[in-house]
Structures are given as C-alpha cells and as structure tokens.
Amino acid sequence: MKKNNTDQTPRVEVAPEVLAIHLKMKRMQKLRRGLAYLVGIVISLWILIPIYFIASMALTTPEVVRSYPKGVLPFIPFSFDTLRFFLGSYGIVRGIVNSVVVALITIVLSTIIAAPAGYAISRYIFKGRDLFRLSILAVRAFPVVVLSIPLAVVFIQLGIYDNIFSLALMHTALVLPTSVLVLSSVFASIPFELEEAAMVFGCTPVQAFRYIVIPLILPGVAASAIFSFVLSWNEVFAASILTIQNRTLPAQVLATLPYSPDPYKFAGSFFMLIPAIIFIFLIRRYLFNMWGQITK
Amino acid sequence: MSDQPNTPKRKKYNWAPYLLILPSFLYLIVFFAWPMVQALVLTVRENDVLLKVHREPEQTSSTIGVFPRGLSVEILDQQANIISESDLDEPGLITEIWFEIQVEDETGTTLMGWAPERRFRIRETDENGQPLKATVRPILADEADPRTSIYIEPSESSEVVAHLEAQTTVDISDQMTLEIWFQVSGEMDGETVIGWVQSRYLRAFPESNQARVDRGNTGQFTWKFIQRMFKDRFFWPAFRTTLLLTVIVIPIQFVLAIIMALVIQANLKGSSIFLGIFSIALGVSDLAVGIVWYAIFTNFGYLNTILERLGLISAPITYLSADTRHWILIAIILAEVWRATSLVMVIVVSGMQSISQDILEAAELFGATLWQRVKNVILPLLKPSLQVALILRTILALQVFSVVMAIGGGDVVTVLARETYRQYYDLRNFHLAAAYATFILVISMISSIFYLKAVRTEEEVQG
Fold first, then answer.
1. pTM of this prediction?
2. Cα B454 to Cα B456: distance, rounded to the nearest angstrom
3. How far is B197 from B199, CA to CA, in rounded Å?
4. What is the rounded distance in angstroms from the CA atom of residue A14 to the CA atom of residue A96?
5. DSSP secondary structure of chain A
6. Mean pLDDT across chain A, nearest whole number?
C-alpha cells in the first residue's frame, strides 16, 4: 500500500517541502498510533490484572489462598476447592437462589412497566415528553440509600419486611429508569416506516406492532432484561437494609464480611463478578446506544 | 435533548403516549417520590411522643390538649367504651367485659341493653362456658343508687335504658370487650388540663390514682434527629471522607475516561478489543471489587508479594489498619477508579461518536496538537455528555458504601452511606438513619444543581 502511494505521488510534481511535511505527518501519525497502542495496553492491563488476581485466588485450594507470598495461576495448583468451600458456607446457596429469584421478578416487572414508556418516548411527540425523559434520568441518578430507609419502615408496618418479593419491588424501581431509557433507544432504532408499511398493506396498528416491531426489538428487550439482572444481582445496600433472614448473595457476603476468612471472601468476590462481566460484555452495544441517545 | 430528526413520529396529539407512560410514572411515584418524602418526614418528625387528650371519652370528640410521654397524671374517673377488634392486641390495654342482657320489666315488656360483667353473678352457662343467665349484684356503696344501670349501647357514655334492682335475673345474649377510658388531669405548659384518654396509653400505678403517660398517639416536629446526627462522633469523619473521595476520584476518572475514549477514537486495529476490555468493569458489583482490592492490599496480599519479589521490601507491610488510614483511602480510591471509570468512558465514547469526524480531522490538519484538540475541540463538544456523567458520578460517589466496607471494614475510614447503614442496622435508629440518608440526598441535589448552573452559564456566555 505504502509503496504504491509513493510510486504515484511523484507524477503530480509535489514540491519537496510539501513532501517533507507529508512524510513528517506520516511519521507523527505512526508515532501517535504506537502511543495509542501503548496507552491502550497499559489501561487494559490495569483493568485485567486485578481480575486475574482474584480469579487465581478463587480457582485454587484454600491452603494456597492462605499462603504468602501469593502466586497466580498457572503457577499455583488449579482447583475448585475454594469455590466449593464458599458455596458450601452457611446461607450462600440460599442467597444465590434468592438473588436469582429477585433478579427474575425484577426483569419481568421492569420490562412490563418500562416497555410501554420506552415506546411512547421513541414514537410519540407529546407535551411533557422531555420532562418525563429528564425526570427518568434524574431518578436514575437518585441515591438508593435515601429510598431504602423509608421503604424499610413502611415494609415493616405492612408486614412485608424481610421478603424477597418486596425487595424485588424495590429493585424494579431501581432498574426501571435504565430499562425505560434502553428500551426507548431500542424502539428508536426501528424505523417507523416499517410499521407504516405494514399498515399500508392492511395490518392494524396492533398487528403491525405484533408482527413487525416485536421480532425486531426482542434482542434489545433481552439486553435490557440482562442489564436489569446485573443491576439487581449487584445491589447490596437495599438488599442489606430490607432483608434479615432472606438475604440475597451480596447481602449475605456483606453481613458476614467482618468475620469471614479470606478464601470465602475471594471466592465470593469472583462468584459475584463473573456473571456480571459476561452479561455486560454481551450487551455493551446497547449501553453505548442508550448513552448516545441520552446525551444527544 | 433534541428529537432525532430521522425518526418519524406519530405527530397527531392523543392520549396514547400518556397511557403508555402511566405505569412507569405511577411506579416511580410510589417507589421514588413517596419514599423520598417519607425520608424527610422520618428526619424531622418523631411519632408517638404526644398523647391527645379528648374532651369526651370518645375517639371522635375534640382534642383539648396533648400530654408529652412520661408525664404524671391523676386519674379522676373511668368509663368503658367500644374498642375496635383490630385494637384488641394493643399493648397496655385495660379492658372490661360487658354483657348484652334481656330482662322483663314489671309491665311484661322485654328490655334489652348492656351492662358491665362486674355487675352480675353468673348463674348458668352453656357447654362452652358461655354465660346464659345471671343475677344482678347489689351496689353496696353508701348513698349510691342501689340499682344497676342498663345502657342502650355497650358504652357508659350511651343512654341509660333501665335501672335494675339487685337480684333481678337476666338472660345474657351476647358479650363484648370494652376498653377503659380514664379521665385524667395533668399539667401542661403550667395549666391543668382535664380530659379523657384511652387506658392503653397510660401506666396506672396500683393502689393509687396516679398514672404515667406511657406512650403517645401523635407525632411532633423535631430538630432532635438532625442535631443528634451533627453531634454524632462519626458524622464529621464520614462527611469529610465522602467529600475527599469524591473530590479525588472524580477528576482521575474523567481524565482516565477521556484517555480511554481517545485510544478508542484513534481507530486502531483491535480497538473493539480495547472497547471490550475497557467496558468489563461496567457492570461489576462494588462489593466484589472492594474484595478484589482487599486481596491486593491485605497483609499477605498481592501488593506485598510484588514488592517483595522486586526486592523492595523484606517483610510484608501492613496497609489496612487503624494506623495506616491513608493506605485504606488509597486502596478505596484505586478500587473506585478501577470500578467506575468505565461508566464515564461509555458516556464519553457515545458522546464522541456523535462528534463529526471532519471537525477532528480539520483540527488535526491545521496542526493542532493533541492537547489543543482535546481542550478546544473535543471537550467543548462533549459538554452535554460530560455534564450528565459528572452529575451521575458525583451522586454515585456520594453514596459509596460496599467498597469502603470491604477494604477498610467501615470503622477506621467511614463514609455517609456507611453511617446510614450503621444507624439502621447496628443501632436500629430509623430516625437517625433517615437523617443521614436525607443529608446524602441534599448534598446530591446541591451538587447536581451546581453542575447544571455551571454549565448553563458557560453556554450563555458562548451563545
């Protein structure tokens, strides 16, 4: 490629000064690319190495975890013993089940409630639309800490305290704003012409929605559901405040943190990290789309 | 927030969009707006500290004053009144059983009415022990009416339908539990107030006519909890640390996020791999990340291992202890930067994608250095994105919690959210927990308004 370029340029009779500048810029660009690679690799290492450390600790035996100096895989024995020790500890399996149940209820509730709002925002122009979008964004930013305490007091009064279903109600409120925003960007990515065309060919608006829009948005809805799952799976504060016996996994780990041994902590950390990392990796495109829409 | 011009919309004005947003709107009212108001209410209002004193022994009668909890009062009189079934398990109740009776008077007509159990001697019961027949006891007190009053309703404040002589035989058709009301007199603001209160709120002292107000039934506005929060020994350290963390972490995150975005914007081969790696931390649990950095900074952790391998130290250094507060802070800062920079990066990258490539190329063509391009072209164009990211990150930074718990245990280095948790979870004080939560809310709002104002004025200057 480069050879070709230099072969062709002399025919245009370029002044030597211009050529010099051109070459200089080429060199600069190369240098910059190299620098960008270097910076990118350094940042990548900064992100990956801590995960590598915790994976090494989780995927070995508890004896190795307690030893010093610390090693990393593959220089230390690979084993599922630490993870098994963690999963066998009191309240962990139950916590995982609770976490999954809470997250699933949250997904269903938030999708049902958020999908119509997402559709309205992306398809209609109506008075108060921008206000609604703004307040959704504001709510997204509001402190969980502030909501948990009064909700705990109310849940105690209503007799639904320490219940994973009431925790799911709270988590739905937490993920609802993000669901609305993700879903509205999903709807916005499907041209309204498609719906219109279907209606021209004799579909009712409901049919057009059923046969044109729904198949197209399913991946986006799945992405929003996955994101809701991750948010609920990670949430610690509200879960710790609103439950005592029926703890979710992070709440259980937090409650036992002060007197739990290192292998338990490290395996717990790894166990909480992995689903979130995988899921977010799958849906990152939608998150970029969402923020692109919001900040427009 | 402009509309996307290439997405056609149903332009006609109708009610459909409102119907569609209604569910989310209602949900957010119930689970956001309302709890937020409740948090404020819990902060400045103390429930059940005042006892309403009624003019008459009835719930509906007017209130003539309030007694504070703990006040000593004198019992002047008592009366039994209807109590709703749901209140029967209230603590501290003094109750009385009343019978509905039927009796024939001299003229042969049947009278029905209510009177207290103590006025009767049971003569006959059914197989379940329910009384069926009884005789009226005599009233032995001097100069009193020797007859027993029968009331039209099970309440001493209702109309008297008859007076029965002692030893009259009556049929018992029903019975009911009534609550005693006391007529009490107590001092309030230097004045003596005499009125009626329910027995459940009083603790009566035996063998005397004295009683104490045990609990109240109405709340009171108070600054007490806010004052107590400011005097709490953990408040100022928590506030200082939260602010310090916010002020240190956020600039680092923004610089790092912009560098990440520039690397991705450089259109390198494999830039999608970089993007994938940079967004790993986007959805990780903060508790898990706290533990990851605990694994690095703990005594027998990775940092000491690396330093020892490099020959820089000969024995492990203790980082996470009460004597090395600064190291705990550093670990928390690193964990927060590691965890939350990706969110800023996503916002910045999505913002950069909407900047036209031509502008950037033009700037490069005119010989602008990287720093000049960032400062004069990219940052101004990214302003809306940065504003959103700044608000979001600040509010999230003000509620940092799990990372602090996982790394430092939450005592040596404490933050506002940790104190909310302590007040609620360890000390079981709803009001102080709500006060802390409200405080976080207030500083979050102040910071958001500050960012919005700061950016808008700059736009006006430019415009």
1. 0.81
2. 6
3. 7
4. 70
5. -HHHHHHHGGGG---HHHHHHHHHHHHHHHHHHHHHHHHHHHHHHHHHHHHHHHHHHHTS-HHHHHSSS---TTSS---SHHHHHHHHSTTHHHHHHHHHHHHHHHHHHHHHHHHHHHHHHHHB--TTHHHHHHHHHHHHHS-HHHHHHHHHHHHHHHT--S-HHHHHHHHHHHHHHHHHHHHHHHHHTS-HHHHHHHHHTT--HHHHIIIIIHHHHHHHHHHHHHHHHHHHHH--HHHHHH-SSS--HHHHHHHHGGG--HHHHHHHHHHHHHHHHHHHHHHHHHHHHHHHHHT-
6. 85
Distance CA B362, CA B456 (A): 27
Decide if B320 touches A, using CB distance below 8 A.
no
Q: What is the ipTM of this complex?
A: 0.87
Q: Which of residues 429-448 of B touch A (CB under 8 A)?
A: 430, 433-434, 436-438, 440-441, 444, 448
Nearest CA in chain B to A296: B1
**From the CA of B264, how many Å to the nearest CA of chain A?**
8
Residues in contact with B127: Cβ distance below 8 Å, sequence separation at least 6, in sequence order: none
Q: Which of B26, B302, B347, B373 to mutate to test the interface with A (most CBs of A within 10 A)?
A: B302
Q: Which tokens belong to B258?
A: 């912009």
Structure tokens at B229: 């929060």
Strand partners, B72: B212
Tokens of B234: 């953990």
Residue of A35 and B219 predicted with greater confidence: A35
pLDDT along chain B (463 residues), means of 10: 45 74 89 87 85 83 84 84 78 83 80 84 83 82 75 81 83 84 83 85 82 82 89 93 94 93 83 86 90 92 90 87 90 94 88 79 77 82 84 89 90 92 89 92 89 67 46
Could you give the CA distance from residue B133 to residue A278 in angstroms, rounded to a whole number?
Answer: 78
The answer to whether B420 contacts A139, with C-beta atoms less than 8 Å apart, is no
CA dist B413 and B242 (Å) reads: 10
Mark yes or no for CB contact A154/B35 under 8 Å. Answer: yes
Separation of alpha carbons A211 and A208, rounded Å = 5
At a CB cut-off of 8 Å and minimum separation 6, what does B212 contact?
B70, B71, B72, B73, B202, B203, B205
